[in-house]
């Protein structure tokens, strides 16, 4: 299994490789205007017969996390394939541990990315992950622009 741990203390626009293998390449940049303290780990670096990816992230937010809305957009070979929004933290009865974290506290999370239902065809994927501290999507807490290149079909 291939895993790569990155510690990033960068300004936006600098591309960082998460992983590369014979069938997959993933990199990302920050798409907002502030520097971040952020780590991300992904294993295995493959889409071939790998229904579950293990992911772990560490992030030190720049503001308190009372309200948190995630916007997830995916493009495949330039065409919009998915647009999904979810409120993770609303300030009342929140089920995620990140909710209620204070500015400067370390958010550490491990989770599975389940792709068993998804067969990724060969091609270029762009994934924009935005986090907002308000429902109107005016106050961006973080923005990541992932590039995923699937080099061969899994079927």
Brief rundown of the structure:
By secondary structure, the protein is mostly beta strands. The protein is 0% helix and 54% strand.
Residue stretches low in confidence (pLDDT < 50, at least 5 long) are 1-12
- The helix count comes to 0
**In percent, how much strand structure appears in the residues?**
over 45%
The count of β-strands is 10
Mean pLDDT: 82
Shape: globular
Describe the largest sheet. Answer: 6 strands, antiparallel
Q: State the distance separating the first and last CA atoms.
A: 21 Å
Provide the spatial order of strands within the biggest beta sheet. Answer: 2-3-10-9-6-7
Succession of helices and strands:
EEEEEEEEEE
Give helix % range.
under 10%
Structural class: mainly beta
Gyration radius (Cα, Å) is 16 Å
3D architecture notes:
There is one protein chain. It contains no helices and ten strands. It starts with a strand and ends in a 5-residue tail after the last strand. It has 155 residues and is mainly beta. Mean pLDDT is 82; it is low at 1-12. It has strands at 5-10, 16-20, 24-30, 36-43, 52-59, 68-76, 79-89, 107-114, 123-132, 140-150. The strands form two sheets. The protein has a six-stranded antiparallel beta sheet, with no helix packed on it. A hairpin with a 3-residue loop joins strand 2 (16-20) and strand 3.
